[in-house]
Design a protein that fits this description.
mainly beta, Trefoil (Acidic Fibroblast Growth Factor, subunit A), 4-stranded antiparallel sheet, 8% helix, 25% strand, globular, disordered N terminus
């Protein structure tokens, strides 16, 4: 099993800064570069449920491997919002080196603070619901690319499974109802489809 020093360091920095971080209100950042040493909400700038912005959500803050993720009204900055706090971490390979895609951009693990596990596509098939699993490729963890969506005005990005030689799948809502409880799945990547675009907030 490879060392988790990068994850441990990132989480330690978050713990030290928790008091300052919790003082924010609502999505405050919109940056394709993950915040160093901190967490962010992953939210959709284009899907709105009755005027509410929707975020990646671990239902009930479950710590069970295999928990299915959903979209829910963003409240990551509230005292009860840990299930929406994501740490976007550049993983290291078995030799301790950072991992890059074919374009020279880093790939990432996406760690959920409430669940204590990473965002995972369990079988790489279109329509498969995203789950949380331990952050280790040997146990089914997942790495992700954050391709820039150049067709929009803001720093929007997709979440593509990596490596792409297995599949060209991106995170997407399961349907267009865009309400609380909408499942998060993978579908064929189409970064001109606004429902597949996300921001960090």
């Amino acid at each position: 099993m490879r060392p988790r020093t990068r994850l441990a360091g990132a989480l330690a920095a978050i713990a030290l800064a928790a008091g300052l971080t919790l003082a924010g209100t609502g999505p405050a950042r919109a940056d394709i570069v993950p915040p160093p040493g901190g967490w962010a909400e992953i939210f959709s700038p284009y899907l709105h449920a009755q005027g509410n912005t929707l975020c990646f959500d671990d239902p009930g803050g479950s710590q069970s491997s295999g928990t299915r993720l959903q979209l829910w009204r963003c409240h990551g900055y509230a005292s009860s919002g840990a299930m929406q706090r994501s740490v976007v971490i550049p993983p290291d390979d078995l030799n301790g080196n950072l991992v890059y895609d074919s374009n020279g951009s880093p790939v990432y693990e996406i760690y959920n603070l409430a669940g204590g596990m990473c965002l995972t596509d369990p079988n790489l098939a279109p329509g498969t619901q995203l789950i949380l699993r331990p952050c280790n490729l040997a146990t089914g963890g997942q790495w992700w690319e954050l391709p820039d969506a150049s067709n929009t005005a803001g720093p929007d990005f997709g979440l593509r499974t990596w490596p792409v030689n297995f599949t060209n799948s991106c995170v997407s809502p399961s349907n267009s109802s865009d309400g609380n409880g909408t499942r998060l799945v993978v579908e064929d990547c189409d970064l001109f489809d606004l429902s597949q675009l996300w921001k960090l907030g």
